[in-house]
Design goal:
260 residues; alpha/beta; nine-stranded mixed sheet; binds S-adenosylmethionine
Length: 260
Amino acid sequence: MYNEALRTQKEIVLCEDGTNTLFSKEFDEPYHSTKDGALHESLEKHVKPSLTLKSDKEKLIILDICFGLGYNTFATLYYIKKNNLKIRVHIFSPEFDEDLVRSLDTFDFPPEFESIKHIIEAISQNLRYEDEQFKIEILLGDARESILKIKEKIDIVYQDAFSPAHNPLLWTQEWFRDVRAICKEDAILTTYSTAAAIRLGLYENDFYIFVHRAEMMRYSTVASLEMLEGLEYIDMELKKVRNTEAKSMRDEDYLKDMHS
Ligand SMILES: C[S@@+](CC[C@H](N)C(=O)[O-])C[C@H]1O[C@@H](n2cnc3c(N)ncnc32)[C@H](O)[C@@H]1O
């Protein structure tokens, strides 16, 4: 399904927040919204809403889908250090592009990541990092298989794959079923996608759906396995009545394409 020759073909792109991302020729898409910005998007769509909602926990297990340039993982560590949070964090992050991860010690990251440079270097060399506060493990290989092997229960999922149109198998109802199976009963999931099909796939796996708004950012989605107060709730039953055409994405529709 994936083209090995194209996988290596990437170009550096400067985002509007002044941070660098890549454009993937394999997926025909940038790794981040160049308008929202790589670091800004990571912090505003994933890190801040998640760590705020889980601020009562002493330890968090995070599933970062997928590692890519590592912005979501690195922004999590940056945010925790900057705000002197005492929380311990264990991050699992699937990624099948080993060469990309191994090249990250030479990537031009923003100055905000200067204090975690040693962590970036360790991950680039060893595909893992551990100290008293942080443990990060890159799960090399196809995320569909890797997540089935995770034994820990997850508090937070950063759902940040390439778009549903370009990477459908990481957005189907069955994918969210497998994600849900390794989640704690109060887990939350953050994603840039606001599409009805994606929200339905989450809803059909017991997630409540909320709109997340941040400054200078397109709105995004927070999903939660328990009802949350103070967030803009979306009644998916009402959505289904109003939009009878909407349906979740299903593996069989894309596996068929792969085999045809
Ligand atoms: C949009 S990028 C992730 C950006 C990343 N979250 C960041 O902050 O830099 C998507 C990543 O998913 C990886 N990927 C796509 N399909 C995958 C799969 N089935 N299994 C593992 N990794 C996959 C790609 O190689 C790419 O690095």
